[in-house]
Amino acid sequence: RLEDKNFTSKVIPSNFTQLIQDKNIYMGVSGYGIKDLSISQNKIFLSFSNQVSPNCYNTGIIAADLNKEYLNFRKIFSPNECIMNNSGEFYPFSAGGRIIEFDENNILFSHGEYLMRDLAQNKDSIFGKIIKINNQSQEYEIISMGHRNPQGLKYDQLNNIIYISEH
């Protein structure tokens, strides 16, 4: 309990470093790393700078069942589409990455456009979109497009409205 004067924490081992091997995340390279953490339906979700191939990135998601002894993460959103970090105005801070619960089977996820603005308007691209992802099948669909760097995300279940704020 946070009200207690003596607070203890425990490091929970995981397979994170085996699954995510991009050295930029561990070296503190600016803009690369964990974008969000969300706990929903006894699972922990992390969005991160996902290196698809050398120097080519998108924002991916890994998930693990909540377990106080070991977190066994698996990739649940790791598309092949990526942007070269040496192309144009590539900017890893404009990656989005917010994860929220949508319903019992799906999460909502914001994916930024890394300053590749034309991709936000491209219906075939994941960049600059709000995406609904099924936590079991990993199938996804685009809910909204045309976003730059959506980081605030809230679903009002009572009124069936999705609120988004951008940076």
Beta-strand percentage range = 35-45%
Biggest sheet architecture: 5 strands, antiparallel
Taking all residues together, what is the mean pLDDT? 93
Distance between the termini: 34 Å
Low-confidence stretches: none
Morphology: globular
> How much helix, percentage-wise, in residues?
under 10%
Structural class: mainly beta
Say how many strands there are: 11
Gyration radius from CA atoms, angstroms: 16 Å
Task: Write structural notes for this entry.
- The structure is a single chain.
- The chain has 167 residues and is mostly beta strands.
- It has 3 helices and 11 strands; from the N terminus they run H-H-E-E-E-E-E-E-E-H-E-E-E-E.
- The strands form 3 sheets. Strands 1, 2, 3, 4 and 5 form a 5-stranded antiparallel β-sheet that branches. Strands 6-7-8-9 form a 4-stranded antiparallel β-sheet, with no helix packed on it. A two-stranded antiparallel sheet has the order 10-11.
Which features does this protein show?
167 residues; globular; 5-stranded antiparallel sheet; mainly beta; 3 helices; 4-stranded antiparallel sheet
Entry summary:
The chain is mainly β. The chain has three helices and eleven strands; from the N terminus they run ααβββββββαββββ.
Topology summary:
Elements lengths: L15 H4 L3 H4 L7 E7 L2 E11 L2 E10 L8 E4 L5 E2 L11 E8 L2 E6 L5 H4 L8 E6 L5 E6 L4 E7 L4 E6 L1
Antiparallel strand pairs: 1-2, 2-3, 3-4, 3-5, 6-7, 7-8, 8-9, 10-11
